Amino acid sequence: MNKIIANADDAIADISENATIMLGGFGLCGIPETSITALVRKGVKGLTCISNNAGVDEFGLGLLLKTRQIRKMISSYVGENAEFERQLLSGELEVDLVPQGTLATRIQMAGMGIPAFFTPAGYGTEIANGKEVRVFNGKHYLMEEALHADFAIVKAWKGDRYGNLVFRKTTRNFSTSMARAGNITIAEVEHLVEPGELDPDHIHVPGIYVHRIFQGGPYEKRIERRTVQLSVNR
Questions:
Q1: Secondary structure of residue 105 in the 3-state scheme
Q2: Rounded CA gap, 213 and 100, in Å?
Q3: Who is most buried in 6, 85, 165, 191, counting CB within 10 A?
Q4: Distance in angstroms (rounded) separating the CA atoms of residues 121 and 139
Q5: Secondary structure (3-state) at 37
Q6: Handedness of CA 213, 74, 82, 67 (dihedral sign)
Q7: In whole angstroms, what is the distance from residue 28 CA to residue 44 CA?
Q8: Which residues lie closer than 8 Å to 88 by C-beta, 6 or more apart?
Q9: Which domains does the chain have, with CATH numbers?
């Protein structure tokens, strides 16, 4: 099955208003930049976006926040985006903050077909409000439900026409689980290769989970926060 799509605009063409979308990557590393830009061009609104974070101003999901296309964010870290903060404090944006491990596991469970699981993370905090609590071996656990999406959009290092994907290092974070949890999975890749070029032992997401794939780019590999340390003479 040839799953190659001509470009990002064609790949996201059927994403409609009020859709729930997972977007892979970790911070600004491995995010589907080309697809996000296509969503901005499409202008689709009312989106619920599930992502590790909300990007930064003028980059990543920050672009969709700027154009008011996101209605709700489900994330674990949102501290680098001034526009996100403004919309949250003004009541323009609905936000569901989830502990990072819980967020990753909720996505993973969706891909595995497991409807819910129990975790100690968040017990005794606001996160526990309205959730079922059980005690196992004398310890309290919250029940968390699997997290599904209409679309999962990920960026991989390499992929072939069948949708097999290979990621590099930190870019695997969230993306491999998200690719399994979307009703429709869209993959943009840095390198679109011929079948047989990928070592089967190195494939992180088998093509059975991927519905569309296209060559993305050009990519801007940003550093979210640059930290330097002055040398100390001893």
A1: helix
A2: 28
A3: 165
A4: 11
A5: helix
A6: positive
A7: 22
A8: 78, 95
A9: 8-118+146-215 (3.40.1080.10)
Tokens representing residue 40 in the block? 């901005």
How many C-beta atoms lie closer than 10 Å to residue 18's C-beta? 12
Instruction: Name the token pair of 124.
Output: 């005794």
Distance CA 230, CA 232 (A): 6
Task: Name, in order, each residue with C-beta under 8 angstroms of 1's C-beta and a sequence gap of 6 or more.
Answer: 162, 163, 207
Give the integer Cα–Cα distance in Å for 45 and 189: 25
What string of pLDDT tens digits covers the 234 residues of the chain?
Answer: 899 999 999 999 999 999 999 999 988 889 999 999 999 999 999 999 999 988 888 899 999 999 999 999 999 988 778 899 999 999 999 999 999 999 999 999 999 999 999 999 999 999 999 999 999 999 999 999 999 999 999 999 999 999 999 999 988 889 999 999 999 999 999 999 999 999 999 999 999 999 999 999 888 877 766 777 776 665
DSSP 10-34: HHTTT--TT-EEEE-SBTTBT--HH
